[in-house]
């Protein structure tokens, strides 16, 4: 490949990553904006802390478990854009539909539907982006996409906070998010028009493994432990609202600050991962493990510091875990590899959500101890998996 062709390939790859990043910017505005008030909203409809944690846990579990059949189906049918559009449509439209919920059961259905839609489109998007990693770098591709993603996740809660500040209701906040949902689907249409076959962006082979290695499975278990220790913002926001430590429009503002710091963390981690690899994952998880005591025992500013570290944990799973999987893609099973990995991740999330939800009713220190322990337990597995990783 001559320099001119290589430059053209890199430009096209970047354009695709950036366009999909814009899609995810508006998508995250929608569902992270909604997520910032779902906990208090469910509470206002009569749901308990355990109910909210379980609803969030089931939603997250399905949001990861369904990625396995979705990835398999995409590999078998090749209908990558069809599944992507289907997933985004369900994912995005479920949030403004919350404005129409008459009770917490109906609202819970919308919360779970949003996660299911996200599950359908996640493997297809990650696999399409993986075609650009040979040109742009694994860490940087997912870091750039996640940074744009997290930018939307910062703007969405701020927009909702403004609605609440102006004495608007939760329902008004959810209804307003229909605007960003439509913008996301419009940007996705642009991506489909200009990049109908993303596999053509591959400058060199990015799927090098022959099958799923021992290292892959160990990374999956490590990711599941990380997921078990991270908590949904729905659960955290319920705690903050019910205890009165942080209330009203400050809750979505805190989420916005946390995700804003996540934008920086994503870009930094992505670049460092391409240079140093898995040790950067270790650092990120060590930082993330410090969030629970600050969030559940701290005052106003302690909670803020804890949520910033919580955002670091999400940056780790948003960017670094995807970069790890992208380096172990089996031939012909690109979508399945992402779907399978996140099915394991979702299982860990479900177990963690059920455990923390039940523990919360009995002992907050137990919630903290569980979260810290399982996150730190993932570290030796990441190290062992890296040492066993096949060299390519």
**H and E string:** HHHHHHHHHHHHHHHHH
Beta-strand share of residues? under 5%
**Count of individual beta strands:** 0
Described by strand count, sense and barrel closure, the largest sheet is: none
| CATH architecture tag | Up-down Bundle
Helix content: over 70%
The top-level CATH class is Mainly Alpha
Question: According to CATH, what is the topology?
Answer: Growth Hormone, Chain: A
Q: Cα-atom Rg, whole angstroms?
A: 20 Å
Structural class: mainly alpha
Going by CATH, the homologous superfamily would be MFS general substrate transporter like domains
What can you see in these coordinates?
- The protein is globular, with a radius of gyration of 20 Å.
- The mean pLDDT is 86.
- The chain has 17 helices and no strands.
- The protein has a single domain, classed as MFS general substrate transporter like domains (Growth Hormone, Chain: A), CATH 1.20.1250.
- The longest helix is centred in the N-terminal third of the chain and has 42 residues, at 3-44.
- By secondary structure, it is mostly helical.
Question: Which properties best describe this structure?
Answer:
single chain, 392 residues, mainly alpha, Growth Hormone, Chain: A, 17 helices, 82% helix, globular
């Amino acid at each position: 490949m001559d320099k001119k062709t290589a430059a053209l390939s890199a430009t096209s790859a970047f354009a695709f990553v950036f366009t999909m990043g814009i899609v995810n910017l508006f998508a995250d505005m929608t569902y992270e904006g909604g997520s910032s008030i779902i906990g208090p909203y469910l509470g206002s409809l009569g749901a308990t802390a355990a109910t909210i944690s379980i609803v969030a846990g089931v939603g997250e579990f399905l949001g990861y478990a369904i990625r396995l059949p979705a990835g398999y189906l995409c590999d078998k049918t090749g209908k990558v854009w069809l599944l992507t559009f289907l997933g985004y449509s369900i994912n995005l439209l479920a949030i403004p539909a919350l404005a129409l919920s008459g009770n917490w059961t109906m609202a819970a259905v919308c919360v779970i539907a949003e996660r299911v839609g996200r599950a359908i489109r996640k493997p297809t998007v990650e696999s399409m982006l993986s075609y650009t990693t040979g040109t742009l770098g694994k860490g940087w591709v997912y870091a750039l996409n996640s940074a744009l993603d997290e930018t939307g996740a910062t703007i969405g809660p701020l927009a909702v906070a403004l609605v609440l500040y102006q004495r608007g209701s939760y329902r008004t906040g959810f209804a307003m998010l229909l605007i960003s949902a439509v913008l996301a689907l419009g940007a996705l249409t642009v991506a489909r028009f200009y990049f109908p076959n993303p596999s053509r962006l591959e400058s060199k082979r990015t799927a090098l493994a022959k099958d799923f290695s021992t290292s892959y499975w160990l990374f999956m278990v490590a990711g599941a432990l990380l997921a078990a220790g991270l908590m949904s913002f729905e659960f955290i926001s319920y705690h903050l609202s019910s205890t009165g430590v942080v209330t009203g429009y400050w809750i979505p503002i805190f989420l916005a600050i946390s995700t804003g710091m996540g934008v920086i963390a994503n870009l930094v981690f992505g670049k460092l991962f391409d240079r140093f690899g898995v040790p950067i994952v270790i650092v990120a998880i060590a930082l993330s493990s410090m969030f629970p005591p600050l969030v559940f025992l701290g005052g106003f500013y302690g909670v803020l510091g804890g949520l910033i570290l919580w955002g670091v944990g999400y940056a780790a799973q948003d960017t670094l875990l995807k970069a790890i999987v992208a380096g172990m893609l089996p031939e012909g099973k690109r979508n399945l590899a992402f779907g399978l990995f996140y099915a394991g991740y979702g299982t860990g999330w479900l177990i963690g959500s059920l455990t923390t939800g039940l523990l919360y009713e009995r002992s907050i220190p137990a919630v903290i101890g569980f979260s810290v322990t399982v996150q730190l337990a993932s570290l030796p597995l990441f190290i062992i998996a890296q040492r066993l990783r096949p060299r390519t």
